Amino acid sequence: MVTRQRGLAAIAGLVAFPALMLSVTGCTGSSGQPTPAGGPGAAARGAASGAPAASVCTRAEVKAAISGFFEAWNRRDAAALGRLFTVDGVLDMATKHQDTLTGQGWASASGRGMIAAFAQRQWRQGEKLSYRGLTIGFNGGAAGNGGYASNVLASFADGTAQPMTEAKFAYGCAGHAFAHVVIVSAKAAAPA
């Protein structure tokens, strides 16, 4: 895990999520094409097992993956969480005491194993994540896909809560998994 210290100028770069989504390549599908046989996660499971995966995805698949992130996190299921990311996927996320907006940074984990280890450290604090809505950005072609979760809140076993200012998910259709997830805080955790 790497903790990054960033100022407000660097945080402004996080607002450029469409550029992040454009960097995810390999999607040749469109929102009108069907989900691979076996459901939204079938291609991701195929990719993880070494079987060839189709390089198409749908809005429904992207939405299911984002919802699946929150479900796996709250079930404390490291294996399921890891499967949602590409082999070299990245999770940038504020921890309990980090106020991203004042330059206190965030933690960064790269690769499924490091992402699982980071999540387990957060889970030991009783962290749960909630959200109130999803916005899916589906560009098709080589552009990439992903979305935003709105009103994200991290709550902890000690009764504190931490609002997140942004939760962005860059989804790669070729791998049927997240290439990059960014969840940054509006402030450090405080009593709810």
Could you characterize what this model shows?
- The model is unreliable at 3-54 (pLDDT under 50).
- This protein starts with a strand and ends with a strand.
- By secondary structure, it is an alpha+beta fold.
- A hairpin with a 4-residue loop joins strand 8 and strand 9.
- The longest helix is centred in the middle third of the chain and has 17 residues, at 59-75.
- The radius of gyration is 16 Å and the shape is globular.
- It is built from six helices and ten strands.
- It has a single domain (2-191), classed as Nuclear Transport Factor 2, Chain: A (Roll), CATH 3.10.450.50.
- Strands 1, 2, 3, 4, 5, 6, 7, 8, 9 and 10 form a ten-stranded mixed sheet that branches.
- Helices cover 30% and strands 31% of the residues.
List the helices and strands and how they pair.
Blueprint: E1 2-4, H1 8-14, H2 17-23, H3 42-49, H4 59-75, H5 78-83, E2 85-93, E3 106-110, H6 112-123, E4 128-130, E5 133-138, E6 145-150, E7 153-155, E8 160-172, E9 177-185, E10 190-191
Defining key terms:
Nuclear Transport Factor 2, Chain: A, disordered N terminus, single chain, alpha+beta, 6 helices, 192 residues
**Which structural class best describes the helix and strand composition?**
alpha+beta
- Poorly predicted runs: 3-54
Strand tally is: 10
Q: Helical element count? A: 6
**Largest sheet descriptor:** 10 strands, mixed
